[in-house]
Write a structure and sequence with these properties.
Domain Peptidase M50: 16-200
Pfam family, one: Peptidase_M50
Structural class: mainly alpha
Order of helices and strands: HHHHHHHHHH
EC number: 3.4.24.-
Oligomer: single chain
InterPro entries: Metallopeptidase_M50B (IPR052348), Peptidase_M50 (IPR008915), Rip2-like (IPR044537)
Radius of gyration: 19 Å
Family: Belongs to the peptidase M50B family.
Number of helices: 10
Helix content: over 70%
Length: 232
């Protein structure tokens, strides 16, 4: 059982704040891509906004990140999916793929931006040691938050391309399936949350291996190491 100390609670709060922001950008990316390809559903529903109230999913945005934060592994989660109507897209089949992949790609972009900002912080600290020592109380927290922001977005990318509803990977997989198989696969959306909880929590206890966590950690380690190598 994890020990709930003040430091751990503050750390969990920071992780949730990061994941909520990253998830909002993720969902806006879906909506903006759909709008670009001709579907105004997300815009009309008021989902192209940074207001957290329109995006937060109680389990995916709060409970799951909390559990991940206290477990000590990469923090990941998801927000309420942005609505869109594939029949309003200019090229429904191709554009539906673009809409689905836009979210995970936005997380990669956020990880890249976080890396560039971290590089700028480290560069400033190296080039002016005296100034860095004076503002160490700002530089160290900024460095920590940016590192966590990079890791969080790498984890969101890895997690969201898992081919399980309600994740983006399920939408991507359904687009390449034959029509009959696609219809059956999409029926799983009605049971999306129970399926996800079984895969995340029940299955690991039954088989003794947490496949999703191992996969997410591996992808995060690769992406983080690759990104950080450019600024060190």
């Amino acid at each position: 059982m994890p020990r709930f100390t003040l430091d751990s609670l503050i750390s969990a709060a920071i992780s949730i704040a990061i994941i909520v922001f990253a998830s909002i950008i993720h969902e806006i990316a879906h909506g903006v891509c759909a709008l670009w390809r001709g579907d105004t559903t997300a815009r009309d529903a008021g989902r192209l906004t940074l207001n957290p109230k329109t995006h937060i999913h109680p389990f995916g945005s709060i409970i799951l990140p909390l559990l991940m934060a206290f477990s000590g592994g990469p923090v990941f989660g998801f927000a309420n999916p942005v609505p869109y109507n594939p029949r309003r897209l200019k090229n429904p089949h191709v554009d539906a793929f673009l809409v689905a992949i836009a979210g995970p790609l936005s997380n990669l972009l956020q990880a890249l931006v976080g890396t560039l900002l971290l590089g700028a912080v480290l560069w400033c600290a190296r080039t002016n040691v005296q100034l860095a020592s004076e503002y160490i109380g700002i530089i160290l927290p900024a460095q920590n938050i940016l590192q966590r922001y990079i890791v969080c977005n790498c984890a969101l990318f890895a997690f969201n391309i898992v081919p399980l509803p309600p994740l983006d990977g399920a939408s991507i997989i359904s687009l390449v399936l034959p029509p009959r198989s696609r219809a059956r696969f999409e029926e799983l959306n009605a049971y999306a949350l129970p399926i996800l909880m079984i895969v995340l929590y029940v299955l690991p206890s039954l088989i003794g291996v947490d496949v999703i966590s191992i996969y997410v950690r591996s992808v995060v380690s690769f992406l983080y190491t690759t990104l950080i190598s450019f600024i060190l």
